[in-house]
């Protein structure tokens, strides 16, 4: 476990050195970035003639790759249309067939495909799900081809170390294309009109929520996420309130039974109980939370960097900005350690060479650069640092100050078997019960600590 935490926490240090994506219109399509970024997919030692043949297709037999993306949505679907088109122009004998999946069920789709022997050639995954696929012997080992890849030295070593560790066997099955930074978003125009700075502490959030909530008009300061995916915002709030920076102690005991955690849950729940957030907040998932923020129902939202496209589309890029996560009374803001997305090839592919080319292209400065600027992710390929959009990014300087402003990065325990499902079901249901007044904060915090502590101690015993 110590190695897992060290590997992921190393990623948090990168945030101070790298920026995150902003306006899609500030970048050229991937194919237009090639000259400045260097071409992806090129192997060391290839001659110019070989490169020309490969780019032109030569006498290569036509190949069709199937590609599944873990989170098909209105931002990523057109994004991959551009990336795939550029890849197919570079490798004209390869055709890529794209399918965007639902983010909350993509692993079920992958697992079913593995069992039935109907896996795609290439897929995208979150780092937290890597081990589950490797454990099924489902992914292609990329180590040998990676060592021949021209851009291998451009990849942040912390990302590679983490991917090798999380695989469980030390091998490289996944190439990252971007990290996700937890942050808070605020309506810049609204704050300027009211002559206030955005909330940077929990006390300020509560103060503003009380001052600016107008239930009769359906207007609120904060949009609370009480439904699907609420555990991340919830734990960031509770740990910041209590000044607790780790889920577990060395012996596996879970820290969620800390009385300050329960006190923080009462404070968080009071925002709903007292009518300081919308009545719908109890069931808000990502789409509903972003809709409240984007429509002006709420002026402040806790979410990660990947909501940049939706926020800019809804409010206009000039009207939104990011601010560090909320801090508790001691000045500590606890933030979920950055996660990263990446691409992998399934072991059952009949076209391993072409599948690997596409995985490498998705991780290249060209392919990943376009994905990062579009989806709002922190680049993990250093070649992207030279792209104009990155240098001019409006959010970079804010993210770069997080570490020095008291932000502490906590690793959420996705390494535990059953944690993701537990967070999705038990924690969400308990949280909603507290919001409804059906359960006491101390009782649910003790239950979470007991259950997660058992999972952690079982993990440590292996």
TrEMBL record:
InterPro entries: Bact_solute-bd_prot1, SBP
Region spans: Disordered: 24-61
Keywords: Signal
Signal among keywords: yes
Cleaved signal peptide residues: 1-21
Biased composition (Basic and acidic residues): 24-46
UniProt name for this protein: Carbohydrate ABC transporter substrate-binding protein (CUT1 family)
